[in-house]
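Hi everyone,

Forwarding the result from last night's run.
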Amino acid sequence: MSERLSAWKPYMALLAVYVIWGTTTGAIHLGVTSIPSAVLPCSRFLLAGSLLTAFCLFKGQSFPRWADLKTHAIVGFLLFFAGNSIVCWTVKYMSTGFGSVLVATTPLWMTLLSALLPPRERIPGLSLLGIFIGFGGMLILLSPQLTHLRETTDIFWMCMLGLAVMTFCWALGSIYVRKHPTQDSLLMSVGVQNLVAGVLLLPVCWLTVPDWSAVHPTGTSISAWLYLTLFGTMVATPCYLFVLKALPVSVSSTFAYVTPVLTVIFGAMFLNETVTPTMAVGAAVILCGVSLVQVMNRQQWAGKNRPKVFSPDELEVSTSS
């Protein structure tokens, strides 16, 4: 019975990622209404990172050695500083639904990077077709802006560039985590990675908030910040890192096309956002391309002996140093 439960742990963790990250973009949108877009992730990362690291040290775990610390620093920069924090800026100028659909291209980047970075994984021909279909869907999604370039604001294209950077960095960080295991527990890893991102964001906060006395967070923003800190970071992120190492890329990357659906629903229900026909068609094409990639990768994974890259029991917090 315990073996069955352990086998299901990665999938339960993936379900938690689906549900929590499907609502975090909407929570970010609510948070930045009265909290500066750099302060929201900076304070969230610093608090979550401090709590997780302190908890692990209290339980008797050792602070990461230098080699592992370097890995955590790279992951913290890619996933949280260059990844998550960019979303906090773009949601002020772009609907959560539109942005979340663009984030659905993450599995395409993850598939390409897993084939390019050692140890390389072969990409089936139909997966390449899925990648091209996915990018075709993104062009459909952007077609209204592409046909009305003169009417499109500069800030829109800056957000597009930011989301492109965010998506690539998140995919790169995810593949890096998968191919560079450390000796630290999940909670210690997430804690240190968040501390790195929070420290890197401190000068950004200083440069982008000229008058701190004018910052007056509302109850809604504070509630969103607490949700992002406790659930988005301290619960969902360890689950995501666990899933990355316990399941194949074809499965772990599915969060990127499941969470946008929940994000669009959240935006329509609570943020009064609309879903246009062009957006629906573009999203459908993107998801078709991504799904094709996932199916082919899953078949390839099933056709070979799966390497043991992670122990499901490591989801538990170790009490040994």
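The CA atoms of residues 84 and 166 lie 7 Å apart.

Cheers,
N.
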